[in-house]
Amino acid sequence: MSFKDIPLAARPREKLLALGPGALADAELLALLLHTGIPGKNVLQLAQELLDGFGGLNGLLHAGLDDLKRIKGMGGSAKRSKLAAVLELARRAVAERLKERERFDSPDAVKHYVQLQLAARPHEVFAALFLDAQHRLIALEELFRGTLTQTSVYPREVVTRALHHHAAAVILAHNHPSGCVEPSRADEAITQTLKAALALVDVRVLDHVIVAPGGALSMAERGLV
To answer: How far apart are CA 186 and CA 50, in angstroms?
Structure first.
């Protein structure tokens, strides 16, 4: 169906103005951002294809600029940049809410937060979440950056930053741009090395979380911390 064939009252913009944004489906809200479709695919169809391609809004929220290119019609810079900007604002809003309200003492809360921060990065990033004695977030710092397959991690730098923040506990985190969140032997080894180094200054390692655009894994839940 052509977009012009949709009754005026049922079009996303008119529907939003008449009934409010809560009355619109996800695809309709997304269509308002995209503004236009492409030949052979109206804007509502393009919006639905985006949602289907990323498994819904949650998957789309973790998509990067290059990921959006997978959907035909999103190769141009205008649509991708507009959507990427809105997705980044959404990520920041959710991250701020989590930071303000959450105690980071459950694997699910940690995985959600770290996924929002790191999952869409095209390169591997090693970060640390520094927590107070009540497991509230003091700061998240990206400490080391590597290639797609490895990152050099220096224990002394992690210890120095933990002392700087007067942290009582630390959660380690990094992303796997490959999409697989299974920990490698190197991941297990660096976790134990950092755990031993931080124990010398009375800082506990609570978890090591690995994220990718399609998932997240807690090494603590696996008994690897």
So the answer is: 35
